[in-house]
Design brief:
- The chain is mainly α.
- The protein folds into 2 domains: 96 residues, RNA polymerase sigma factor, region 2, helix turn helix motif (Rna Polymerase Sigma Factor, Chain: A), CATH 1.10.1740; 77 residues, Winged helix-like DNA-binding domain superfamily/Winged helix DNA-binding domain (Arc Repressor Mutant, subunit A), CATH 1.10.10.
- It contains 9 helices and no strands.
- Helix 1 packs across helix 2, helix 6 packs across helix 8 and helix 7 crosses helix 8.
Length: 185
């Protein structure tokens, strides 16, 4: 069943569809959020909040703007960035640096670990296929938690260029990652 169909069913109150969407996408959202927050417990909270928001606001999904996976990733990234900004305001800890080690909580099930490794390899291969300037921009946005404005300031590129690079990169990633979106590997 497609992500769009699951979302439509969620909008109609089908909790099983929420579970299926969670099972499909939480293993890919979790590493991204852990990378941003460096705290697996907090990352799990953000992933849960992401799907809770998707459940409550399934009617706000716009297929013309992105696929369901992209919508979920934007929600998760936004929630993680909100937490990072709150940390920064409270001065609890600085934002993670670009060279901070990736922290991912190990899973007990070897089959799940193997599936995640396969998915990660597909994502990394898709990213490697992007032109360097698009790959760098996506890296800054999705893996280092920078806003488009921050990327523009850091790279010295116009904001429109940054937005265009992200849009083009996401369009190019859509096809190679379609198998993941449909529940394959």
């Amino acid at each position: 069943m497609s992500d769009e169909e699951l979302l439509r069913r969620m909008h109609n109150g089908d909790a099983d569809s929420l579970g299926r969407l969670y099972d499909r996408w939480s293993p890919l959202l979790f590493p991204l959020v852990v990378h941003l927050l460096t705290d697996p417990d907090e990352a799990e909270d953000v992933v849960q909040e992401t799907f809770w928001q998707a459940w409550r606001h399934a009617d706000r999904y716009d297929a013309a703007r992105s696929d369901v996976a992209g919508w979920l990733f934007v929600i998760a990234r936004s929630k993680a960035l909100m937490r990072l900004r709150a940390r920064r305001r409270r001065r609890e800890e600085p934002l993670p640096s670009a060279d901070a080690p990736e922290l991912v909580a190990p899973l007990a099930d070897p089959a799940v670990n193997a599936e995640l490794a396969g998915r990660r390899a597909i994502v990394l291969a898709a990213l490697a296929g992007l032109p360097p300037e698009q790959r760098h921009t996506v890296d800054l946005a999705y893996f280092h938690g920078m806003t488009q404005q921050e990327i523009a300031e850091r790279t010295g590129q116009p904001l429109g260029t940054v937005k265009g690079r992200i849009r083009l990169a996401l369009e190019k990633l859509r096809q190679p990652l379609a198998a993941l979106a449909e529940g394959g590997l």
